[in-house]
């Protein structure tokens, strides 16, 4: 499991197009089929333990929660933070207060 930060501090300032006070945090570029979706975990909810069918990026876009990898250690995440799992890597996720996460899955996904 690799923890990834997509917050403003991890981005690059946008200087083109007369932009002001804007940053861009690249998530990925893919040439292979890609699934992109949202997971909503309610207060006290859990997405149970499973192995990633393909490389998977989980980015918290609202709220906060936790993820747990094969080492069974909880890592707490908040909005703007994420985690990358390789294909076959076991994990689960949950939230005490609720969260929404952007999930990107693709055979060729790399961060």
TrEMBL record:
Top-rank taxon: Bacteria
Gene3D superfamilies: Jelly Rolls
Name of the molecule in the record: Cupin
Lineage: Bacteria, Bacillati, Bacillota, Bacilli, Bacillales
